[in-house]
Amino acid sequence: MLSIGYGEGNFENLRNSKNLFMDKTQFIPKMESIKKFFFIRPRRFGKSLWLSLLKSYYDINSKDKFDKLFADLYIQKNPTELRNTYLTLYLNFSGIRGDNEEELRKSFNRSVSTFIEIFLTAYKRFFPEKTLEQAQELFMEIPAADMISFILKKLEGSQHKIYVLIDEYDHFVNTLVAEGRDAT
Q: 81: which residues sit within 8 A by CB, 6+ positions away?
């Protein structure tokens, strides 16, 4: 009997533990027809799980796991051309904290830096040698936007594209509002 993986935000864990999964993969081809999209749903609605599913679907490093992860789902039988073709940069802003604008900015930059280091480690073979070491030196001093520019420049001339997934994008703003603090 399948159990309900309530609160499970990791698609691979959910599928490997044989939890019940409501297949919504038929929306992937529809999403691909939109250049940029903003996925907004209420809390506890499965947004993190959906982003994790997208990461598994588009991630070039997950190619060997595709049939196992997507077995018996719509998208396994109807894959798109973009399946497992991206380097996926996953950002989760749930850990961003700060009592003022400067602390929030520092926390934000640290968070982005951490996720980019994870990204560079996962896709090391696609980047010039020493990219991770250069990033670790630079990232102590530069803002998040410059970190993103850094990895994009390192990929210039390559056929590889980056798929950016942002989870909990509004977490720190919601925290400020809930605590009655100014978000500026």
A: none
